[in-house]
Amino acid sequence: MKPGTPTAELEGVHKRYGKVTALDGVDLAVSSGELLALLGPNGAGKSTAIATCLGLVEPDQGAARLFGESPHALSARRRIGVMLQSAGLPDTLKVRELLAQVRSYYPAPRDTDECVRLGGVDGLMDRRYGQLSGGQQRRVQFALAVCGRPQLLFLDEPTVGFDIEARTSLWQTIRTLVGEGCAVVLTTHYLEEAEALADRVAVLARGRIVAAGSVSQIRARVAQRRIRCISALDTAAIGAWPEVRSVCRDGERIEIVTDAAEVVVRQLLFEDSELCELEVQRAGLAEAFVEITREAA
Ligand SMILES: Nc1ncnc2c1ncn2[C@@H]1O[C@H](COP(=O)(O)OP(=O)(O)OP(=O)(O)O)[C@@H](O)[C@H]1O
């Protein structure tokens, strides 16, 4: 692989299923030591993009490459780990057997204890896969995805069904793997997950990338600000100011959402000389995401 070659890449990918356009000219790239979060509403094309990277879906136009090679090349496949939404693992096998089987596909797998630790599957090894809870099955799938010491990891909604502790612990594991140089492509509907982990975010809507950049770049695309303060001003009157999107009161505190923070702050200070504890916050990733996908729709 030439220096600078992306670890995984989609170039100008189009994919239709009958009348449905799943991908409409998608360019994506992820490099070693980087986590790319692929976000988008249901049906936006995220799973199709991952399946195309993996060679499970053939693009109508454009190309997918792993380590600069075809996704079908065995040498590329041996360097990846995958956790998809539907795992299709046999219910009757024990976790220990599944792990031994998947480890055997790879040239230099992690040792079993390390896989158990990374997946948090301690105590589940002698249980049958089909008898595990949803969250436990996802942890086993993660252990299987990382057992081959992959340099590229695809995680399609990895923490669905996780309790808070399991989610935080998986986030820490993912951060460690990225720190060791692994490239990760993550899809998630939990925007706090993307905010916590992503070096870069790409937002898909109707098969197109509608925004891409770091979390703070995506947040900055949206002018929306949240103003908080303590004030006795009438919220109905504030709600009538043209720049104000919404306003609510919680006791003595007021929270205002606006696209023109400076104008609103000036007006607030003008009307209430006793106003205090003024705070202005940028839109979070969740608010930016809603705004960007609404524009795209
Ligand atoms: N095998 C298929 N046959 C027909 N249509 C499909 C197929 N796979 C995906 N689609 C359609 O392509 C579009 C993109 O689907 P995709 O699963 O990639 O979306 P997604 O962003 O992963 O959604 P979600 O967040 O719900 O998982 C959807 O309209 C979906 O119905």
UniProtKB/TrEMBL annotation:
Transmembrane segments: none annotated. PROSITE patterns: ABC_TRANSPORTER_1, ABC_TRANSPORTER_2. Keywords: ATP-binding, Nucleotide-binding, Transport. CDD domains: ABC_DR_subfamily_A (cd03230). Residues 8-231 form the ABC transporter domain. One of its GO terms (molecular function) is ATP binding. PANTHER family: ABC TRANSPORTER ATP-BINDING PROTEIN. This is ABC transporter ATP-binding protein.
